[in-house]
Specification:
188 residues, 8 helices
């Protein structure tokens, strides 16, 4: 068991780009406005738990239930697609009655620990040492936690108009990510 700083840095940067917590700020603020509160600790623990579990047993679990990685990615892309449509068009598809579940679905899964992140973990596992991947995951969740804890400040900093523009812009980006994920796993 060895710790390689270069591997940790590479894994951290790849996961940071895939998780895209900074790009998710408008979605997080929008969800918080809908449900009143995001439980940052719960969101981080669940998403990190999903990622760590998937790192160790993900491919085997998918094989047991008869789902291939591509099908899993397609399902995640559809959820991301609907979240993006809400952002761009201002429609409500995701209706939340419980304050607790918004912290889990759609925030912890599929937004943070989504199909793209989980399939990336399978790729990283083939290339990097497991302990370095775990450290990369933990480092990313420090950033995720800080962003989730500071959504009020970020909302005030951006203002209503800035938030609206950011929400639409990131909605388009999220829509493109969903379509790319769908296309790369269907061959269209």
């Amino acid at each position: 068991m060895y710790f390689n700083f270069k591997e940790i840095l590479s894994v951290s940067m790849i996961l940071f780009a895939i998780i895209d917590i900074l790009g998710s700020i408008p979605i997080i603020i929008d969800l918080r406005q809908k449900v009143g509160k995001i439980q940052s600790e719960k969101t981080c623990l669940v998403a990190m738990g999903i990622m760590l579990a998937f790192l160790f047993i993900g491919e085997e679990l998918l094989n047991i239930i008869g789902v291939d990685v591509a099908s899993f990615a397609i399902a995640g892309s559809l959820v991301i697609f609907f979240i993006a449509m809400e952002m761009v068009l201002g429609i409500t598809v995701f209706k939340e009655d419980s304050h607790e579940t918004a912290s889990i679905i759609p925030l912890a899964f599929p937004l943070i620990a989504g199909a793209g992140t989980l399939t990336t973990l399978l790729s990283l596992k083939a290339e990097f040492a497991t302990q370095n991947i775990i450290i990369g995951i933990v480092l990313n969740f420090i950033v995720v936690y800080l962003v989730l804890k500071n959504t009020y400040r970020l909302e005030k900093l951006l203002g209503k108009n800035g938030l609206s523009v950011l929400r639409k812009a990131f909605g388009i980006i999220l829509l493109a990510i969903a379509i790319k994920l769908f296309r790369s796993n269907t061959g269209f």
